[in-house]
Amino acid sequence: MTVELPALLLQFQPESEELKSRHKYDQAARQFVKQLDNVSTPHWLKGADTPQDVLEVLNPAANSIAYAFTLRHRIAAAIDGKSDANAALPGGALWNKLVLFLETFDPIQMRYAGQEYKRLVDYAESLARDAGSPGLAIAPVRSAMIRLDPTTGTFTSTHVDFVRLCLETRSYAAAEPILDNYIHSLPSHIPAIVREGFEYSVPCAEVTRSGEYIHRLSGHSDKVNVQDIQEYYVLGAMAYLGLRQFTKALHFLEHVLVMPAANVANGLMLEAYKKWVLLNCLVSGGAKSVPRSANATAIKQIRSASKAYEAVAEAYSHLNNMSKLKAQINAGAQTWAEDGNTGLIKAVSDSQMRAYVSRLSRTFSAIPVSNIARNVGGSADETAQYLETLIEEGHLNARLEQTDKPETAGIVLRFFLDPAQGPLAKSEKQQQQALFEQTLRTNALADQVKDADYRLTLTKEYIENVRRQQKRQGAQGDAMDTAWDDGAEEEDIMVDM
């Protein structure tokens, strides 16, 4: 190596005037990464833990590429026993530098150093596990994911690893900032083409979408397939279940059911379907048809193995016969335990009670608790305590009142039919804020759909389809029809993932 390492690491200065052009920045960043790839391992270890240590000279936020290469080699040396191994464990000097880097790196520079990014993210999890505290990796890994892609909408192998880590440590809320973002892209087969003279075509362009710089050759992700995506949605649904956000969990499970299946169901689809059936009781009030876009043959296979769950959903709909649901639940106790769905089954049982009480509000403005207790088979005190819990948790817009009237002596459940009254009442300002937040989410999703449509028009399959349509209609001079239904059997675009 003809240039000393410290001088080489400082060669790439992204804020310099000569790199203001996005094309020049792109060329310089690519060349810089190639140079660092050719530096041998011993050079990275020189001067470690001395005042001249390059990790003390470099700024992880300004010299992110150089810092990432150096840090990765230092941690690898510590793991291999070539330096102090304790320095890489949580609390050690290298660990602290790793956390600082993952929380402050320049996301533009990391678009060009995908392999270093991925290795450092993986180190955060593996080192935390080695120390017996895997939860310590959650915050830095999540920060890294959001810094690289603020939408976290381009799916990577890190998505699966991260959600699995959150479930393992029961850190369900920690996964929510990632799960709440829509997945709008998968790592493409080839990187976006850089076009000379078009500033937007380079990865460092400000308008570049994450699906253009996170691809199969960028190094930001291991190879992903359909099963990885299904696992992400199943695990994400389980995290939402831990947060009792049943509607979000239901949507995640539907993603699994409608994915390409080639007429064959797998274990993830079976697990998703069983939970999906129970969640429909909680969200929709009973059994619901599988989305039409799901593979009919695969759904038929998993339904044949889910009869006990469908029986529960059927019994749930009979609010006037709560004993039927209890009988089905008791009969399948071993099945729920083996499938890990006992907690969800209990939620379904509780939900039927809530649905029964909620339906009373359609008929009564107030009803004695003793009457409810007789119908559900329990004491008045137990029923009153349960109703109070429903009110406190926001499931019931009502209140319990003590009355001395002869006809309704004791505790009475009084419903609030006006949504502007009662414990669940929202002010006009709160309603406007909710609408505003929903509008922001809808606009963000619309932008991602528009971007996905644009990228679709650049794919080989789309272009070939357009050519076929042009040949068919060229003679007639009709307007070009770009519909995908050309009479040929549809190709499964996910099959080679």
From TrEMBL:
Domain COP9 signalosome complex subunit 3 N-terminal helical repeats: 47-294
InterPro entries: COP9_N, CSN3
GO cellular component, one term: COP9 signalosome
A Pfam family this chain is assigned to: COP9_hel_rpt
GO annotation, biological process: ubiquitin-dependent protein catabolic process
Keywords: Cytoplasm
Acidic residues: bias regions: 483-497
Region: Disordered, residue numbers: 467-497
Cytoplasm found in the keyword field: yes
Protein name in UniProt: COP9 signalosome complex subunit 3 N-terminal helical repeats domain-containing protein
